[in-house]
């Protein structure tokens, strides 16, 4: 099943679109299957989940942290992951800088945009993204590789379009600034229900769970 799902997606999407398999609640065998089928990036929302599977996944992949990162988990998170897609404050970025400097490594990050400007949501609101990136760009062990957004959840993906569009505008604005330590390679938007609209609006990294692995059990999102 997983193999066919991945094949269908790889056939469907243009080559310049990178697929991340959003693997929360999935086990090591399922993740291995996804990588063998041709997916190169695995996303996890929780450090503990990643620690629980990563040693049992023998196939090589890039691991992206896509959940909410607490500062007290940064030290371990930078050991496990290749990219953190959910940086949304200078405080968090400085914590990443501190541990990366000690370990003499550079962490790739995306800035998470709260494109719907929702109160309870993580991410920085669109109007504050440029300022935050200017500040983070002074940290030499943090490399900003682009933006990520979830956007508000809708049944109809068309309703997501304005939020993807907005995030794309901010993405282009920052790209044009040519800041140091800022590459703007990835625009990570779109999930199972919305990836087509997201790609139309400029996403080049889509985070797909259900359409690859099947429905998740239980109520955890
Ligand atoms: C779960 C999750 C996804 C994928 O969700 P699906 O609807 O299963 O495709 C993408 N991004 C994040 C941050 C997630 O937590």
Q: Would you write up a description of this structure?
A:
The chain has 221 residues and is of the alpha/beta class. It has a single domain, classed as Alanine racemase (TIM Barrel, Alpha-Beta Barrel), CATH 3.20.20. The protein contains nine helices and eight strands. The protein has helices at residues 2-12, 28-36, 47-54, 74-80, 90-103, 129-136, 161-175, 195-200, 210-213; strands spanning 18-22, 41-44, 62-65, 83-87, 107-113, 142-149, 182-189, 205-208. Strand 3, helix 4 and strand 4 form a beta-alpha-beta unit. Bound molecules: pyridoxal-5'-phosphate (PLP). Pyridoxal-5'-phosphate binds next to strand 8 and helix 9. Residues 22, 24, 45, 66, 150, 191-193, 207-211 line the site of pyridoxal-5'-phosphate (PLP).
């Amino acid at each position: 099943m997983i193999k066919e799902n991945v094949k269908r997606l790889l056939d469907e999407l243009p080559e310049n679109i990178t697929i991340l398999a959003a693997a929360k609640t999935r086990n090591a065998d399922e993740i291995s299957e996804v990588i063998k089928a041709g997916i190169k990036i695995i996303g996890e929302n929780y450090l503990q989940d990643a620690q629980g599977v990563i040693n049992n996944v023998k196939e090589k992949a890039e691991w992206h942290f896509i959940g909410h990162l607490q500062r007290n988990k940064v030290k371990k998170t930078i050991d496990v992951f290749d990219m953190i897609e959910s940086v949304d404050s200078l405080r968090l970025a400085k914590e990443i800088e501190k541990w990366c400097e000690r370990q003499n490594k550079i962490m790739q990050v995306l800035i998470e945009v709260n494109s719907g400007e929702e109160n309870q949501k993580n991410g920085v609101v669109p109007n504050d993204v440029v300022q935050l990136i200017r500040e983070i760009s002074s940290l030499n062990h943090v490399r900003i590789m682009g933006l990520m957004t979830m956007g508000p959840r809708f049944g109809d993906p068309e309703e997501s379009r304005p939020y993807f569009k907005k995030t794309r505008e901010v993405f282009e604005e920052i790209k044009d600034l040519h800041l140091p330590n800022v590459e703007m390679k990835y625009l990570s938007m779109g999930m199972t229900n919305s990836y087509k609209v997201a790609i139309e609006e400029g996403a080049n990294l889509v985070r797909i769970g259900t359409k690859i692995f099947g429905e998740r059990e239980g109520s955890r999102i």
